[in-house]
Amino acid sequence: MGWASQFAFRSVTYRRQHGQPVHADMDVVIQEMVASEAAGVLFTCHPLSGHPGFMSISSNFGIGETVDIDIEHP
Description:
The chain contains two helices and two strands. It is α+β, with helices and mostly antiparallel strands and about 70 residues long. It has two domains: about 1-30, no CATH class; about 30-74, no CATH class. InterPro entries: ATP_grasp_subdomain_1 (IPR013815), PEP_Utilizing_Enz (IPR051549), PPDK_AMP/ATP-bd (IPR002192). It holds the Pfam family PPDK_N. This is Pyruvate phosphate dikinase AMP/ATP-binding domain-containing protein. One of its GO terms (molecular function) is ATP binding.
């Protein structure tokens, strides 16, 4: 899922709108999964505009798969 996401319509559109090459390099990190009660994602700038004066924390109970793939908006 991680590597293939670079080919998603949303990803390609973002790169085109921001003058980035459509064929971008991508790294994949594999980590050991640990038991968790909650998980989350922190953006230190606006995820769409890139504005640095914005911070957003999304979290949910469990391992965080709904936060990571933007299914749920807690």
